[in-house]
Structure formats: structure tokens, C-alpha cells
Amino acid sequence: MKKPINVLLTSLIILFIFSCTSVDKKQNDVAATTTIDDSYKPAAAADAGNPMNNIGIGPVKERFALGAIDANKATIGKDIFEAKCTSCHKFTSDKYVGPGLLGVTERRTPEWIVNQITNPAEMTEKDPIAHELLETYLTQMTNQNITVEQAKNILEYFRQQDAAHKAQ
Ligand code: HEC
Predict the structure, then answer these.
(1) With a 6 A CB cut-off, is 155 part of the ligand 1 pocket?
(2) How far apart are CA 168 and CA 163, in angstroms?
(3) 89: CA distance to ligand 1 center in Å?
(4) Does the beta carbon of 142 sit less than 6 angstroms from any atom of ligand 1?
(5) Measured distance CA(39)–CA(47) in Å, rounded
(6) pLDDT in tens, 130-143
(7) Is residue 53 in contact with ligand 1, taking CB distance under 6 Å?
(8) Could you report the per-residue pLDDT of 103-131, keeping only the tens digit for each?
(9) 32-66, pLDDT tens digit by residue?
(10) What number does the ligand 1 atom closest to the CA of 107 have?
(11) Ligand 1 neighbour 141 (Cβ under 6 A)
């Protein structure tokens, strides 16, 4: 009676060890595959993961160079902002109807900001960040018929505000 039990136990132990090693091997394989995938991530996937790589969807399709902050443009941008945006946004970290815009130039690319301002409906529909904001704020930002040039002036105002806040 003893012998078959021993045989059974031994085979169980062998089976156990075998299954453990094969699980280990599997996990290693998965880890190895993940590492390789990471280094070959397509641009689109990388964009979704890092907001500072995401230029959004809209009239701006390529990254543009930013120079020093242009005070004249910032003044024009401030006027537009106060006329068309302050009903929903404050330039603080407090949310209002929409997000508080303090620090926006540090968490979004300039292109993404211009696309959000000029093309808010398509942005909340297709861009992962804007879509998430819509789910948080439960309000669709309205299209204020802002041209790209005007949006770039607003961007200068945002950059000026963020720089001033940082210097404090
Ligand atoms: C009717 C309210 C409303 C108006 C008016 C409005 N917004 Fe918005 N805005 C929102 C909401 C809500 C969001 C979050 C995204 C969404 O749900 O559309 C948002 C998002 C944004 C974002 C992204 C903020 C972030 O944290 O990433 C920027 C930038 C922005 N708006 C700028 C503007 C500018 C500039 C104007 C004026 C031209 C403006 N908005 C007018 C409601 C508004």
C-alpha cells in the first residue's frame, strides 16, 4: 500500500516542480517580449502615453517652434481670453466649468493647446486627453470661432502667465 502512494507523491512533486519552472519561464518570456515591444513602440502609442508628445487633432498638424514670449501677442491673447473664455476658465488651479488653466503650458504641448482652442468638439471626441477631460468636467467646451493666429496669441498669454507664476 505504501509504494503506490510514494510513487504518486514523487510524481506529484516532479509535476509541481515542472509546472513551476514552466510558469517561471513563461513569465520571463512575457517580460522579455514586453521590453522588446517598449523599444519599438509606434509613435501613436508613445503619444498617447506622454501628454508632452501629443499634438492633438485639428488645424495644427505639425510641431511648431516657440520663441521667447511675445508680449504684444500675449496682450492680444489676454483680451480674447477675457472676452471668450473666462465664463468657463480661471487662470488658477481651481476648476470652474472647465479646468483651471494654471500650468497648462507645462502639461500640454503648444500644438495641443491650439487644437483644443480651435477644434474642441473633435478633440473631446478623438483625443484621449481631451476625452478624459470631458468625462471629468461633463461639459463640452464650446467652439468660440477662434482662428489659429488668435489661438497662438492666447497661447502666448498662457505662457506669460505660467512664466510669471513660476517666477513668484
Ligand atoms: C462653455 C465653457 C467653456 C468655454 C467658453 C471655454 N472652455 Fe475651454 N474647456 C472647457 C471644458 C469643459 C474643458 C474640458 C474639455 C471639454 O470637456 O471640452 C475645456 C478645456 C480647455 C483646455 C484644456 C485644459 C487642460 O487642462 O488641458 C484649454 C487649454 C482650454 N479649454 C482653453 C480655452 C480657451 C482659450 C477658451 C476661450 C477661447 C475656452 N477654453 C473656452 C470649457 C470651456
Answers:
(1) no
(2) 9
(3) 7
(4) yes
(5) 14
(6) 999 999 999 999 99
(7) no
(8) 999 999 999 999 999 999 999 999 999 99
(9) 444 444 444 444 554 556 899 999 999 999 999 99
(10) 27
(11) yes
Atom of ligand 1 nearest to the CA of 80: 38
Q: Would the CA dihedral through 89, 95, 101, 104 be positive or negative?
A: negative
Residue 122 cell numbers, joined: 473633435
Interatomic CA distance for residues 48 and 90, integer angstroms: 27
C-alpha closest to that of 57 among 104, 105, 101, 121:
121
Residue 20: its pLDDT value, please?
46
Q: Record the cell numbers describing residue 61, joined without a space.
A: 498638424
pLDDT at 26 over 90: no
Q: How many residues does the chain have?
A: 168
User: Which residue out of 126, 132, 141, 160 has the highest number of ligand 1 atoms within 8 Å of its CB and is therefore the one to mutate?
Assistant: 141
> What is the tens place of the pLDDT at every residue in 66-78?
999 999 999 999 9
Looking at the CA of residue 108, tell me the nearest atom of ligand 1. 27
Cα torsion angle, 135, 139, 145, 149, sign: negative
